[in-house]
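Appendix B. One record, verbatim.
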Amino acid sequence: MTADRHVAVVGAGPAGLAAAHAALAAGARVTLIDSAEQPGGQYHRMLPEAYAAEHPGELQHGWPAFEQRRRQVLTHQRCTWLPETSVWALEHPDQHGKGAERPDRARKRAVEAPPRLHLLCGGPVDGSGRTRRTLDADALVLATGAHDRVLPFPGWQLPGVYSAGAAQALAKGERVVVGDSVVVAGSGPFLLPVAASLLEAGSGVREVLEAGTPGTVARGWSGRPWELASQLGKAAELKDCAAALARHRVPYRLGCAVVEARGAGRVEEIVTARLRPDWSVVPATERTVAVDALCVGHGFSPQLELPVAAGCALRGEQPGRGGSGEFVAVDDEQRTSVPGVFAAGEITGIAGAPAARAEGAVAGWTAAGGDPSVRPLRVLRRSRDQGRAFARRLARAHPVGAGWPGWLRPDTVVCRCEETDYRALCEAFDSAAESAPRVTKLGTRAGLGPCQARICGPTVTELRDRLADRAAAGPAERPAEGLPAATPHRRPIAQPIRLGELASPATALTDDEQHLTEGEQTRPNSEQESDS
């Protein structure tokens, strides 16, 4: 393979960085794109360079291997690194012209080529002065990751209530203390590293509340225990986090949740309660806890805007039905249903950083046209498959209980952007005509705000499934002729763009800007999965 093959990688977290590393090893040119200043994603989030700080490394497993891979990718002559760059739209090959090219050749490439990327380069998402660029590649690897899912409860819109991921990002990336008296609540093992990061930054953590009951969590994790032998890296990481909680005498309570937040202008106290296995509240178990910050996370939602825009097929269940929602469907080489488009990391399943690295390496090597028979690729596939088994175990141990809507009151805000409450949604779902997804959005404005349903979309969809009369709502839910089916992930404009930026002309990234050089083909790094 020569440098004639060009692979674009969107996302520079564990999966994206591994994809870029493997594609370079296979001899391809690589353009690595991320909206952040530095690669690493949430898992390897770093302090800004202006801090000139040494990485503490206390709770960062695999940091030396990550730092080595980051250096190898960013300094490689065949790699173009585009930080603070957003992919705001994808354009399919049959939607853009190719000048005077022969129609038969244009049609052939339209079948094989991935979509064109429309970029905003040179600044943060909310910044100004960004430039519009376009990028065409021979293969596209999507590794856009996931974001927190937070279930609504009375008072969750108050200042001082953070998503667990946002609180950890502030602690790890800025050393910001979100509060002196903090409660971490939700579901899943991610709560432990969040609490540990807050403690490391200097916050006082009062307690960690896991909504899953002891029986549910134990049954999910104890089945087929020999399979956990491949996840010793995760066990060591969680052990260190648990030790940090023990040193600071932070209690970890199973079967408990925050069911209300209160305060005048910001959160000042919370109401916690014990839960049944279905997450309904056990009567007379409520207690009030004084706090100045609350961090909440109930799992993750994959960021599917770009895969859906590319036309990739999805697999899985509706959010909340005992799983983690929909994910991108891929084959054994991480190919999606769209020719030339590959997917890796949490958009294919929530399995952790080691599995994401293995998927990324397989995707990058295959996208670059690497030899599919090399032995390291078999090692990577085995690690990936072990990660997928871990993802299924995680979903069994920490499912979202069906009884959580019982926390809601009629005036509970569900869409924070537009302040749409539970009452308005219930009224819409009672009507066969108004319960159709697009009609509900227009009538209640849920999902029309700045986040464009990224936060409330899965929740509204789940509430509709639980509350609407499916027999009556069925005909109204059929998409109008010529329109795709409604989904909270379908956004033709995937990222915010200013009208001035939209009106400005876009220029293509040239070969000179992408550091064209030749390189030798090597082998993919089968150690991708071991630096957990």
